[in-house]
Amino acid sequence: MRAGNIYQFKHFSKFKTVEEFNDHKERFLQYHPDLFTHSEFIAFEVLSQYSVVVPGVANAKIATLVSACSSKQGGISRATFVRMLRKAKNKGILKTHKTYRSSGGFSHNIFVFQPFDVPIDMQMTHRDKQENPCESKGDDSKIVKESENLYINFKYKDLNIRQGKEVSTQQAKNEPALKELDYT
Asked: CA 62 to CA 81: how far, in whole Å?
């Protein structure tokens, strides 16, 4: 998007009138009263004043906006203005769009205010007739003991495998003995 006249950015506007824009801005500030410091609030107000030609859209450079703040109570720094922009973007009231010069490179940003809807606080409803929950039915499933296999080894506890007794393994009838195997 190329930098230019403010009226070419009219399609970004989410508001029909300046009064509607101011109403949404005031609702945002009432819902988030401690979001901005005093200096950041001054920056937010100056940015909103630059957004009245096309309601909710400003296309001024940050340096221009900072210099406009200098007449208000001592002015603010560029870092304060950028910090205000970051906080407003995180809360969803502001979006920025980059513009480009015709010769190439970035130009100033377009600042677009978004409508603010106050979230509705939902409360749980109260039940007039409280019902007692039904009794749980008997659990008919079988309980399998996890340590059931330990009892199988318990009867062989006295059997000492390490003694000199040879333990014979029984081979299947169709398997050849080790002596009968040849090189193949």
From this structure: 8
Q: Which two tokens stand for residue 175?
A: 């398997």
Q: What is the pLDDT of residues 24-75, one digit of tens each?
A: 899 888 888 888 898 899 999 999 988 888 888 988 888 888 888 887 777 8
CATH value of 6-113 in 3.40.910.10, 3.50.50.60, 1.10.10.10, 2.50.20.10: 1.10.10.10
Among 116, 115, 114, residue whose Cα is nearest residue 94: 114
156 Ramachandran zone, left/alpha/beta (phi>0; psi -120 to 50): alpha
Whether the model pTM is above 0.70: no
> First-to-last CA distance in the chain?
80
CA–CA distance, 151 with 126 (Å, rounded to integer)? 55
Could you tell me the two tokens for 59? 């296309």
The domain limits of the chain are 6-113
Q: Do residues 9 and 57 touch, judged by C-beta distance below 8 A?
A: yes
